[in-house]
Amino acid sequence: MSLPLSGLKVLDLTRALSGPFSTMILADLGAEVVKVEPTPAGDMVRQWGPFDEDISVYYLSANRNKKGIGIDFRSPEGLALIKQMALKSDIVVENFKVGTMENMGLGYDELSKEKPGLIMASISGFGSKGPAKNWAGFDQIAQGYSGFMSLTGTNESGPTRVGTAIGDLTAGMWIVIGILAAVVEHKNSGRGQHVETSLLASLMGLLSVQGQRYLSVQEVPEPCGNVHPVIAPYGTFDTADGPLNLAPATQAMWGKLCSILDLEALTSDPRFLTNADRMQNRHVLKELLEGSLKRRSRMEWTPVMIENGIPAGPINKLNDVFSDPQVVACKLVQTVMHPVLGELKQVGLPISMTHMEEGTSVRTAPPLFGQHTSDVFADYGFSSTEIERLLEQKVIHQAG
């Protein structure tokens, strides 16, 4: 099987979500990723519920396709082992608090003296400089600090966090982009480099038009719930059996929507002639549209809208999503065998490539703590005698 990143060796020193998510993407694309976890209990996320047979579902979501090893991070010999492995790797990824890698003797400046071609990638909460550099990187704190929460919710609800750890996940994606750019640079010049992002930077990178509104015209956007901040009508509307998303984004679509709903008179109503007019009167417009939409169900309206060129779709719950025929047809869920859980379903890599066989992103299950320790150290050139000594002295941990 040919995978795009085959041949790249990644030492994964990350924990929780942002870092493990980034290294999982690299692993999905074929990089050899060794996940290093501290003894005695491993990645902190292993203690976070919910649990499937005592295995953290949180952990399962971000650690497939990796080899897992356990090392005593508090032992000088353990840190020396990590350094040896780093110097034999192409990429080192970490998401400790700023300064921790340097305190362990594993900072980029030190490692790059011995291996100038090394790529190191770091994710922090708020960046490696500035007054907040030492703040712990927790997603909801970053969502609030970045302004992201101020855009989410309604005036009634107040600021609302996004329903997943969007700062962690996007930081993981941004750092992968930086890593891949560094890999290309290394191929061209032979130079390594230190790639950095933060939860704060990742979320500010997603502010899009809302951020530009402030930078250009000093507008401070208010939370607008499920309606578009600058287009009307565009958002969530009630039907006979629940909410439906509609996106008639052009003037032509607006006219077509009125025709479908038998509301042609609205197209000549001075309150709704232009998008600016409709934005000014969006609340009364919503009531008028819902009066017609409530005649039929979400899934009755959806094909009608789509057939008439108006983007539309129901608001699904996850039980709807995972049984949806479109999701099934696109093979967005894949199955892998787990040593404890048996068949394990996972959301696969949401990328397809011409020369990457379909359905190959989920190949091996997230490892047990220390599952591959002996094999990995053998691959890195350690003798069986040395591996046995390290195990006996509890410098490293192998799953039983």
Automatic annotation (TrEMBL):
Record has Transferase as a keyword: yes
GO MF: CoA-transferase activity
Keyword Nucleotide-binding applies: no
SUPFAM superfamilies: CoA-transferase family III (CaiB/BaiF) (SSF89796)
Keyword annotations of the record: Transferase
Domain of life: Bacteria
InterPro entries with a match to the protein in the record: CoA-transferase_III_domain, CoA-Trfase_fam_III, CoA-Trfase_III_dom3_sf, CoA-Trfase_III_dom_1_sf
Protein name, as recorded: CoA transferase
